[in-house]
Every structure is written in structure tokens, then in C-alpha cells.
Write a structure and sequence with these properties.
Two copies of one chain form a homodimer. By secondary structure, chain A is an alpha+beta fold. Chain A has three domains: about 1-30; about 35-165, Nucleoside Triphosphate Pyrophosphohydrolase (Alpha-Beta Complex); about 170-240, Orthogonal Bundle (Arc Repressor Mutant, subunit A). Helix content of chain A is about 35%, strand content about 25%. Chain A has helices spanning about 5-25, 75-90, 150-165, 180-190, 200-210, 235-240, and strands spanning about 30-45, 45-55, 65, 65-70, 95-100, 115-120, 135-140, 180, 210-215, 225-230. In chain A, strands 1, 2, 3, 4, 5, 6 and 7 form a seven-stranded mixed β-sheet that branches. A three-stranded antiparallel β-sheet of chain A has the order 8-10-9. At the A-B interface, helix 1, strand 1 and strand 5 of A face helix 1, strand 1 and strand 5 of B. Chain A binds a DNA duplex through helix 5.
Chain lengths: ~250, ~250
DNA sequence: GCAAAAGTGTTGTCCTTACACCCATGC
DNA sequence: GCATGGGTGTAAGGACAACACTTTTGC
């Protein structure tokens, strides 16, 4: 057999193999997939989450996290990024996958599988450029019922956040660029639902060396103003590998 | 308006609302979804994973984790349980979701989204009742190339395992019912890829109080036999909440 | 001057780490 | 008796938890 014939035979065989694979995939049931984005922020000493009014009449009045269907030619994380951009105008947000939700009856319109994503951001920094469907920030603590299984998804996001914030100093994403230690501590206390000793808290963060003293102070507070700090992102990135837990 | 008419109107409105929801879902692109199960075991001081020979000719010779498509009427975790049962005959295995994989070209037969699940089990206890497609245990350390993106999925499973085993004493699932402290330590060392101080390791586990002395000893070892222990599952379940990290 | 929060150090306890020798068994 | 791994204790250092008083500002 000539080399040419060999090559041809191999190519034909590859084609055939591909066809087999394609035929197999065509036998798979197909399902609608959506992604849902749980976006946390922090404002007025309260943990908040970004919700829209569900556009489905069956959920009259109920709120929903930001979600939409996944297109056939996009990855799930790309879909999540796109949806966030479409719904809020924000496009520089890091999203983390937190899990899938696939109960058969979770969507009243039929079977829909969803994958939930989560993010933290600074409310002041990320202005909402689009506010259709009454998009706005809700206090997490006052949310009761939600559309779909979104309360479950929100709860999963909250558990993820509580865990994550103890493994990485992510809380900074939720704060303004310059913040006082009191604000930082309020944030941790709000998310973890505990109170923390002020001196030990300050010592811990001081010893991590991730705070940069801006030499500025709080203004317009009816008490002694606190120092304002910035987060040292470079140092954090460098040492990322070493972070396992913050341990409160 | 009579009460009856009201009720009727409401029912009609509900029907209409449902129809709207159904129509909406019908506009969503549909995709094939699969689940893939990364099943870890431990034998001969080696971390192992359960693989089958890919039945796709395009992956001639390459290995694959256990996966299959999700049916339209089953939840993802149910699919994972079913697949494990179908492929191995095992039906008492706890599976944890580790994430989705949705690259457009990850399957040669066309776009397929997969969600990966992970489990740990005791090789001796969970005999494979089915071994089609050359199903068997492979040393994790010697796996190079795999079918699909399964090497990535395996790596994600491994990272998940390394993290999990430091948060919960899950390692016991990988060991026989009765095991020596040396076996337990070998397991941790194999998974974490480190060496640990023997005395400190024993102290740590002794202080956790999760080990029950069986008063039995290893047999047929060419050296002083070690004590055999059992894992105290009840105590672990009771204190589950408190576990955050084991800290090596 | 008073209310309100900022800022700061020390001590005891516990946990972690590092480290070396004798013991029981099979061959 | 020798090779192999089993079994054990201690001391030093570091991290964490608990705790109270003085300082600065606005009113």
C-alpha cells in the first residue's frame, strides 16, 4: 500500500469515526440550559444582592436573580458574563460557578437545568447602567420568597460566600476603594453572622500585610474619624497560592 | 362578579400564564447534557481512579471517566448515581458535584455540556460487578492523556479531593473498614503529595477522637504489626457542623 | 463635657512543629 | 541478630482569645 493510500484510508477512517461520534451525540436528549448569577454587594452595613422582578406572570411580584438561557455556541461562563452585561451594563466582573440546579419542576415552563454563578462587587464602583425589570439591590436579610428555586440558589450563594470569604480575602471586592477597618469588620460580621473582637480583627489584617494606609481619614462622621485603607491587590495576587484559610 | 367567576377567571389566567412560560422555554436552545463521575479509590499505597476505555473510535485507546447523557426526566445527581450503577453495579455511593465543563469542542460528536461529580470509595468494599469496556482502577499518578477533556476533569477532581480531605476526614471512605495509622497516613501523603511527621499525624488523629481501637493488629506484615482502627462515623456525623479544616 | 467610635498591648492558652529512641515481629 | 516499620514524649515557638483604657471628633 502506498503512503498516499494509507493517508487516504486514515482520513476516511477518521471521517467515519467522527460520524459515529456525531450520530451518538444526536441520540442524547437535549435540554434547555440557563445560568443564574447571584451578585452580592455591601452597602449601609448590609449585605445586598442584585435582583430583578421576574417577567413571568406566574411569579407575580416575586424577585429573581439574573439569569437567562445559554446559547448553543457559548460556554456557560461566557453566558454568565454576557447576561450580567446585558442586564446591568457591567462587564468587568469575575464570576465563580457554585453549582447546578436540576429539579424537574423548577421552571413552570418545563424542564430547565440551570448552573449558578456568584460574584461580589462594590456597589458604588459598579453603577447599574441598565435597570430594566426594576433591577436593584435588595438586603439579603429581608428576602423571603423568590421566583423559581431562586431562594435556594441565593442560599447556596450565601453559603459559598461565607466559605470563600474565610479562604480568601475577597471581602475587599465588596468595599469602596478606600475603606476603614470598621467597615471591613462590619462586612465580615454581616456575612458571617457573628461578632468579632475589634483588636484581634485589626491585628489579623495588619499581620496579613494586605492593607495600605492611605493617610486619609473618614469625613463627616459624628465621632473620631478612622483611617482609610486600600487593598494591596498585587501582594494578594503574589501570595494567592499560599492562602488556605483566614480563620475567624 | 361572583366568586365562581372569579375563581374561573383566576384559573384561566393561571393557564395563560403557564402557557406563556412554556412558550418562553420553547425558545431556549437545547443542548445535550452529560454527567461524568470521577471515582477515587486507594490501594497499594496509591491513589487510583476508575476509568473505562472510551467506546469512541476517534479516541482509540484512550481512557475516560464514567459518564453518560442525562435523561430528560432525571436530575443531574440522579443521572450520576444511575450511571455509576449501570457501569459498575455499585449503588451506595455518595457523589459530590465539582463543576461544569462546557468548551464548545470538548466532544468530537458536537456540542455537549457536562457536569462532573466526584466520589471516594473503598476499593475492597465496592467490588465492581460490571467490568465492560475494560473498567478498572488506574493509578492517578501514571495517567497522561485521556479521551475528551477528561484529563482536565480528573485534575479538577483531584484538586477537589485535596481540598475536601483537609476540610473533612473523608479519607476514611477510601480505606478498608479496619486500617492502621500507617495506611491512613500513606493515604493523606498520596493525596496531598507531601510527607507528614508520623508522631504529629498520630497525635492529630488521636485528638480528634474519631478513631476506635479495634484491639486487632495487622497480620502477615514483615515487621511489628500495627494496631487496627475503625472510623467513628457516628461521632463524625454529630460534629459535622464544626469541621472546617484539618490543617496539615 | 458627653456620646461614639478609633486606636492600642499583654497575657495565658493552645496548637504546631521539630526531633530520637526503644519495641515487636518476620526472616 | 538484623531489617522493618510501630509506637511514644517533650520543648520551643507561634497563633489565637480574652480583655480595658485613652484618644479624637461632632454636637
Amino acid at each position: 500500500m502506498s503512503k498516499k493510500t494509507n493517508t487516504l484510508a486514515a482520513a476516511t477512517s477518521n471521517q467515519a469515526d467522527l460520524l459515529v461520534a456525531q450520530t451518538l451525540v444526536q441520540t442524547y436528549p437535549q435540554l434547555p440550559i440557563t445560568v443564574d448569577c447571584v451578585i452580592f454587594g455591601f452597602e449601609d452595613n448590609e449585605l445586598k444582592v442584585l435582583l430583578i422582578r421576574s417577567d413571568l406572570a406566574v411569579f407575580k411580584g416575586l424577585w429573581s436573580v439574573l439569569g437567562d438561557n445559554v446559547q448553543s455556541d457559548e460556554k456557560l461562563d461566557e453566558a454568565a458574563t454576557r447576561i450580567l452585561k446585558e442586564r446591568t451594563g457591567m462587564d468587568d466582573v469575575y464570576l465563580d460557578e457554585i453549582g447546578s440546579f436540576s429539579e424537574l419542576n423548577r421552571h413552570p415552563g418545563g424542564r430547565v437545568v440551570t448552573v449558578a454563578y456568584c460574584s461580589l462587587l462594590n456597589i458604588k464602583h459598579h453603577q447599574l447602567k441598565i435597570t430594566a425589570n426594576e433591577l436593584h439591590w435588595h438586603k439579603v436579610s429581608s428576602i423571603q420568597e423568590m421566583a423559581f428555586d431562586h431562594k435556594q440558589i441565593l442560599d447556596a450563594g450565601l453559603r459559598w460566600l461565607q466559605k470563600r470569604i474565610q479562604e480568601h480575602p475577597l471581602g475587599f471586592n465588596l468595599l469602596p476603594e478606600k475603606f476603614s477597618l470598621r467597615e471591613l469588620q462590619n462586612l465580615y460580621e454581616a456575612i458571617l453572622g457573628t461578632t468579632l473582637d475589634r483588636r484581634n480583627f485589626r491585628k489579623k489584617f495588619a499581620s496579613m500585610g494586605l492593607l495600605v494606609d492611605t493617610k486619609e481619614y473618614e469625613q463627616d462622621v459624628p465621632h473620631r474619624p478612622g483611617k482609610l485603607y486600600k487593598f494591596n491587590y498585587e501582594k494578594y495576587e503574589k501570595n494567592k497560592r499560599k492562602w488556605i484559610a483566614i480563620d475567624f
